[in-house]
Design brief:
Number of strands of chain A: 0
Shape of chain B: rod-shaped
Structural class of chain A: mainly alpha
Strand content of chain B: under 5%
CATH architecture of the largest domain in chain A: Orthogonal Bundle
Largest sheet of chain A: none
CATH topology of the largest domain in chain A: Rna Polymerase Sigma Factor, Chain: A
Shape of chain A: globular
Largest interface: A-B, 30 and 24 residues
CATH superfamily of the largest domain in chain A: RNA polymerase sigma factor, region 2, helix turn helix motif
Oligomer: heterodimer
Number of helices of chain B: 5
Largest sheet of chain B: none
Number of helices of chain A: 8
Order of helices and strands of chain A: HHHHHHHH
Radius of gyration of chain A: 18 Å
Radius of gyration of chain B: 45 Å
CATH class of the largest domain in chain A: Mainly Alpha
Amino acid sequence: MDLQKIILLCKNQDANAQRHLYSTYSGLMFSVVKRYLKNEEDAEDALIESFFKIFTKINTYKGQGSFEGWMRRVVVNECLMKLRKKRNFTMALEEAYDIGEAEMITPSLAYQDLMKVLENLPTGYRTIFNLYEIEGYKHREIAEKLGISINTSKSQLILAKKRIRDLIKKKQLIERAG
Amino acid sequence: MNELKPLHQDNTVEVPRRVWNQLESKLNNNKQKKKLLRMKVISGVAACLIAAFGLSYLSVGISGDKGSFASNGNYKSMVFEDLEKEESSLYDFNQVAKLKSVILNSHPSFAKRHR
């Protein structure tokens, strides 16, 4: 079925269209959720809440930009909300101006490997890394979303990249030893 | 431009079936709530309309009665009934006096007692 038609039907709260949209995008959106939330239960809750918002607020989508992008933003916002509610979402707020730009994480890193590495990152690092490196948000947008300064966002990203690099090295050493 | 973005943006993860079931029940609950809210709004509006109609009907009735007060035949007969009795011959002073003299003349003993 045509996506525009599905969107139109979803705007009229058509249950079949909602199911169709969910079955098309749930896997993709769940992968987004899982990059932010380690806990399976939290991830499922966030996905349910995200799709609930997508279906109930679909009338606010005016067709500007891709629908997938709009859904992704809803999902990311929901994940950030969930993280903010958690007590342990305390970001290391130390500024790191003196830290040089970290090397780029190798893009050849497989998805599953990256997921494993991300799982081992502190929540703050993981969130900023996800927002900047994968979702493509700018530091200004990240700062606005998380209520931090632009410099904090930049320094957190550098620290996150350093940590990822260390984790990858450690992993490679373990594999060589094995 | 980010190099990781295109590589990791389109990955999918299998979603457990229970997620859809929970989402579906949440959507159904929401629909029920909306329906209930709509019913409440409709019934509230209907109640307001009935109340407004009732009040306007009563106020029109009262003002209508005021207008027809003087011209209401039944009401007039009720109010002026006593006056009409007083105007009848039984309430005429001359008639009463004449009747009294007739009674006194015809029964002298009665006249003695009441003089």
